User: Fold this.
Amino acid sequence: MLNVALFGPPGAGKGTQSKLLLDKFNLVYISTGDILREEIKAGTDLGNKAKSIIEKGGLVEDAIIVQIIERKIKQHSDANGFLFDGFPRTLVQAYILEGLLLKLNTTLHCMVSLEVPEDELLARLLNRAGIEGRNDDNREVIEFRLTEYKTKTVPVENFYRDKGIFHPIDGTGSLEDIYQRLRDAIEVSQEKVWRNFVLFGPPGSGKGTQGKLLADKFNMVYISTGGMLREELAKNTEIGRIAAPYMERGTIVPDEITIKLIERKIFESKEHSGFIFKGFPRTIVQAYILDGLLRKMNTAVTSVIDINLPTLESIKRLSARSKTATARSYDLNADLIVARLEEYNEKTLPVAEYYQKQNKYRTINGMGDRETVFDALSETITNALKHVW
Assistant:
């Protein structure tokens, strides 16, 4: 999904450019003004509330605005993304949009702002007022609107600049030139959007082997909490020493340790297109933690893929691995194997339900050979990427 906010003062040409961008990127247009007019025309409860406020000369409150935007988004749940025109206009609305998109399991990927000198804006608006015959749009009123825009929206610009997704665009020149600048900025933003996948599956399902192969194929970073912990153990670091007793039993290492390792790995790996997580999250708490870590990087979990495997097959595979050089300490004891599978069912399957509710959960059959399973995983990721920018 690609979500773009089109920013710019009155007269910058947002309406004209919006139409071109909608066609190019296959987005749903969200203009608070248009939606309000639709609600009023339809006579909805929200429309009637807005109408009474507007008729009294007031500004429609944010509580109403956010409700109509949320309704519009939910009406287009299968959309490729959204183009927001005229929202957010204030810092408060910027925070509202952040929370709303987080609730809907997405985010704003870029804000493109049309920058036009004030004297040209004034000329454009006066010309438009003359063409449309609007006597109320005189120089004094227009200058007030431009001043109000600068006063209220500069904090919004700084908000998104700090997030690294604000792109000022030269709004002068031909329509074609301006459109090309907007298009280039959005396409650059697309390249910076990470795709993040979580590999699920019981012990013995082959998550480690498949995760490395998938990371290579899709230019992603493979993050295995178990692998990082074993490195710490081998180096005899403080983290390794703390984690050692948990790893020997094959139980979950305390979250504060895992968080440090994952966060370090994420911040060291910014040149790739995303991450393949194996072994994390294993609990609901860890699912919240991962959401928080990725949100700090202005990204989120794209999809969770479960390599489905019958319990008996898991036991067979783990028993077979115990006789190889890649055996883990917890593979050598039948009781530990059973305990690990029980822990998976108890703590990890609820995480699957968490992602199912977000429509991010996919399942593939893990009973085939390595190539067959890899092909199924690759196809699932490829299909997911078609709907993600």
The domain at 2-27+79-192 is CATH 3.40.50.300 (Rossmann fold).
